[in-house]
Amino acid sequence: MVVAGLLTGLAALAFPFAPVVQPTVTYHWPSSPTDPEAAAIPLMPYQPISLTASVSCSAARRLAQAGGAGEHVLLSTTPLRVDPSAHPLPGLRVAVVNGRLAVSSAGVDLGSWPVPAGSDCSWTFTSGVDRTELRMAEVVLAVREGDLRPNVIGAFTELPDATGLDLRLVTDTRFSTTIGPLKLSIAVLGVASLLVLLVALAYTDRAVRGRRTGPRAPGERRWRPGAVDVVLAAVLGLWWVIGPITVDDGYISGIVRSRGSNGFIGNVYRWLNAPEEPFSWFYELYYWWSLVSPSTVWMRLPSTLLGLVCWALLSRHLLPRLGRPCAGVRGRWTAAAVFALWWLPFNLGLRPEPWVAVGALAVYVTVERTVATGRVLPLAAALMLAGVTTLVTPTGLLAFAPILAAAGPLVRRLRERSDLHRLPLAVALLAAPASATLLVFANQSLAAVLESVRVRTVISGRPAWYAEYERYALLLDPHDIQGSLARRAPVLLTLLAVAGASWALTRRERRDVAGGPARRLVVGFVLALAAMTLSPTKFTHHFGGLAGLGAGVLVLAVLTWSRAGLRARSGLGRPAIAGLAGVTVVGALVLRGLNTWAYVSNYGLTWSTNSPHLGPVRLAEAVLGLGAVLVVGLAGAVVWRRATDRPEPTLPRWVPAPAGPALVLVIAVVALEVLGFVRVSAARPDTYTLASDAVRTLTGSSCGLQSDLSVETDPAAGTLPQAVGPAGAAEPAMPVVPVDVGGPVLPGVPIPSTGVTPWYVLDEAQREAVLPVVVTLAGATAPGDSIGLDFGSGGQVVARSMLAPATTMPRDQRVMAPPGADTVRIAINAPESTTGAGTGRRAAVSLPRVPRLTPMTAVLPPGSTAVLDWPVAFLFPCLRPEPLPLGTAGLPRWRVAPPPEDPSAEITYTPAFGGPFAGPRLLVTELRMATYLRGEPLREPAQLLRWIPVVPLEEPTPHVTTTSVPGWRADGHTRVPEVDPVPG
């Protein structure tokens, strides 16, 4: 056992330092000096490992003579013309300025020198992670110590003939590594020695006689499914099909699906595509799972299966350990409701919390096995599970909480084992969790993982551990999706349950509850909450990792605060009143939340914009008022009895014990969640829902949301004709101006004016309320501006629809025509103070049109490649994510973006966030194509953007070789623009 433990530990220690196979990728430009074409080489990260550029004096003279005075660019690694809406990146710029050669790198000016006349010479620029210099022949003209590498988007010149120019660079491929032969051998040795260690521990445990870990009814078969299991499995199965997506399903889907083309699990949306290590092993499982199908229904199946595993651990192991009432029929039905309350809002989808919930509960179960039996193998398994769970996500650290909560009993049990020696035992228990490192560094080196962690630390200002209150502030924020009703209910009820269960476990009479396991469960849950303070982010979805332990605590509290449980301890007086007061406050807080969910899952839901109510009365206020009256009345009766020396009154039969209202709230919230999505799925059969997507996938083929979207490829094709006759005139006449509608330019009218346009004839589809009337507002409107659509019949206004204020970006406004209308016009009323000359306003609105639509699957056929922005990536399984291969970013032709009002995807194109596609964005202009949802044409759940190169671009072929590098080798630090300092 000592040898196996030492080998396991040594393998875990050596594995990160072992050599990995790393590609060396070199680019050379120009490929044809006599016919140069701008080259697209967008690097990711933005700087190369090394770059060498040479410029001949003759090339500089040719450009100076051809261009005359001013600045003329000989060589640049960033585009000479860019889209103004893109974020700039400073690169290498070699230019001739008034007869002098000027050189700058990463925004730092290196100086200028005269161009020699008639001599055959050249300048050579070299830049690496430690030094940047410019020389002519053997003379060093400029040198800078430190990292001054330029950002590289490509190669560009104003020379018609690139003779005398040469650019060579080596990309940064530190993350694109694979396991080497020695590293693979160490992994095999580590796994083999771990298996031997576990077998040795099992052999030593033979001396321990078996003991029961919980009560069992006569004739009970623990693993036989019962009615409660069937019901819960049905709920989880239904939720799998109809349930909501999480805010990060698209994020994780994009990361996972890009693994094949990128070669590693990198963050393709920010952080310079740094690998997700050390928290990524479950992403690898998702990747192999996605190879079967990337559809929503298939990708959400693992979380549903994890829910069944978690329920099995809870119902078959945790509940019996707490005592007979928890393991009985009532306890199981209560546990099913409570488990659904925890699992449904947090743990359907691709986020890591389901894995954490199962891991933490499995740790508790195995720890209790050691406490009950004295066996060591379960403790070693618990340590392994805790280590593996921690490497799922930083929140996974809470898996060690059950071990800490049971530290005292564990030490006592191990000391009772006279057959165990301390050294072998210590080696085994240290080697077990250390073996988890084999999952972290399978393809990455130690230096790469450390650099990945550094990049994340540099880019995002993460809150400190003592800012944990921010998580609970979000939970109680009624205007944030993180404080939704469904998320509040399990967390707030369980926090109340911690107080209630702690009070119950301090009473002397605990005949119905196993005090030791119950105390360890409550303490473990509290320690898990404390462990969450170390999480680098403070989002409420992390509470999903507590689903197993939290459900156990809440079941324990419900059963101990029932009428029977309270009577067994201290009567039904003051404790029951205190419990009712707590349930009243928590119930009001829960019902004050909104029934809101992420993205398309929120479409059609009741109470998604207002808290639950019956008519004008909010349920939260009703519960608080009625509960306060009841609690105050009961408390007054107790005070009166005590003042008159009478016995303290018991709870009247018509007043429920605290467990009753709490359980009613649990069931009500679960019913609201499930039935709400059942209603939405049934009430919206002609448009997209998660349920319809799942059914289509299971019965045939589906391209997700893409199958339900149509695209307006040419806005000009739908311009409405002007009505003829007297109705076609407008008084007063308004000037016609061009309006940018997201790339195309359409005729429109300026908003800083007052008047109406002529009447335009509605299309038949608009008169039948199949398609909306569409106008595009561009530019910011001023306060007081009034823009509306007048709908008419026979030249008379029958209805007016006001348009929302405009921002600086073009924004479509869609309005359905009322019944009976056959014409439409624009009516504008702007205050006089904003219509005069010199106001500087440029707002305008395009003339009305009908969208001419093409199915999105025809515009982007299945299998097409596009940048899939993270909010929407999960819903487009037929499109392939744009790759980020070998230290570069691809040059996309399409981008699928979230709705116009959602700016969250911009991190992917922002250098300060390490956006991987910030470089390609500089090479193109965006042409916006509006989308329309089948059955609900007023909705635009996603945008389609076409990327058109500003200038013709070639894509050079790289030269690729491989080499073996040690795990500690680091090629300097990747530099984040606007964040990392650049040496001056």
UniProtKB/TrEMBL annotation:
Matches recorded under Pfam families: Arabino_trans_C (PF14896), Arabino_trans_N (PF17689), Arabinose_trans (PF04602)
Q: Which UniProt keywords apply?
A: Cell membrane, Cell wall biogenesis/degradation, Glycosyltransferase, Membrane, Transferase, Transmembrane, Transmembrane helix
Q: Give the transmembrane region(s).
A: 184-203, 223-242, 297-319, 331-350, 379-411, 423-442, 485-506, 518-537, 543-564, 576-599, 619-640, 661-682
Describe the location of the Arabinofuranosyltransferase central domain by residue ranges: 181-632
Q: Boundaries of each Arabinosyltransferas concanavalin like domain copy? A: 22-174
Specify where the region named Disordered lies, as residue ranges: 958-984
Q: Does the keyword Hydrolase apply?
A: no
Kindly list the places in or outside the cell where this protein is found, as annotated in its UniProt entry: Cell membrane
Q: Where does the record place the Arabinosyltransferase C-terminal domain?
A: 754-975
Q: Which Gene3D superfamilies match?
A: 3.40.190.160, arabinofuranosyltransferase like domain (2.60.120.610)
What is the membrane topology here? Answer: Multi-pass membrane protein
Looking up InterPro entries in the UniProt record yields: Arabino_trans_C (IPR032731), Arabino_trans_central (IPR007680), Arabino_trans_N (IPR040920), EmbABC_dom1 (IPR027451)
Instruction: Tell me yes or no: is Membrane among this UniProt entry's keywords.
Output: yes
Q: Which family does it belong to?
A: Belongs to the emb family.
Q: Could you identify this protein by its name?
A: Arabinosyltransferase domain-containing protein
| Source organism per UniProt | Pseudonocardia adelaidensis
